[in-house]
Amino acid sequence: MTEPQTLQTTRESYDAIASTYAELFRDSLRERPLERALLGAFAELVRANGGGEVADLGCGPGYVTAHLHGLGLNAFGVDASPAMVELAREAHPGLRFEVGSMAALDIEDGSLGGVLSRWSVIHTPPRDVPPVLAEIARVLAPGGQLLIDFPATDGPDHETQAYDHAVATAYRWSPDVLAALLRDHGLAEAARTVIEPAPTDQRQFQEVQLLARKA
Q1: Pair 153, 160: CB distance under 8 Å
Q2: Which CATH number fits domain 5-214: 3.40.50.450, 3.40.50.150, 3.40.50.720, 3.40.190.10?
Q3: At 158, phi and psi to the nearest 5?
Q4: Can you list the positions of beta strands (E) in 27-139?
Q5: What is the rounded distance in angstroms from the CA atom of residue 119 to the CA atom of residue 58?
Q6: Residue 162, C-beta contacts closer than 8 angstroms, at least 6 positions apart
Q7: 151 pLDDT band (50/70/90 cuts)?
Q8: Cα separation of 54 and 145, whole Å?
Q9: Which residues, 6 or more positions from 92, have their beta carbon under 8 angstroms from its beta carbon?
Q10: The whole model's pTM is what?
Q11: In terms of DSSP bridges, do strands 187-195 and 170-173 run parallel, antiparallel, or are they unpaired?
């Protein structure tokens, strides 16, 4: 299968800044108590459904994968950037990290207890997001949990909005529109959080976390 140009561009861009990115964001969860709480709830729901492996898609340098492991999950990371995966393996040698594409995961059908997609769909053009969601639904076991994070559009009149990102073009989503796409792929929304930007944030976008369950 031919690789989309957007994926190649994103991979090369993150390869180029991998070390800087890892240094900037390695402690980012420490100042995000709401997100830590939601990750804890996600972990509890995965364990309540029997556990199983959890994929952190777009894992970057692996710090969130390690956080999930600390919550008792059998977590591993997948990222399109080989440089990011190399840094993750160096920082967390006891965990598994793989180079891969969210649109073509090398994971067996129905084998995962959970999937985390933390800001990992933002560089995917909107037309290419449904195949990614289809892959997530394919690899999740019945009752498996998905936690997906993304920036919100300015209002319900905007289904998606492109914006300039420091690495590559990124996209914001209407929470209702993305939740509907999840339903189309058999992933039923269970909860959502919307975090307002701080006055000092460079981008005044709401952050959305959708928690969904595979039927």
Answers
A1: yes
A2: 3.40.50.150
A3: -110, 115
A4: 53-57, 74-79, 96-99, 112-118
A5: 8
A6: 169, 170, 171, 172
A7: very high
A8: 9
A9: 62, 65, 66, 69
A10: 0.94
A11: unpaired
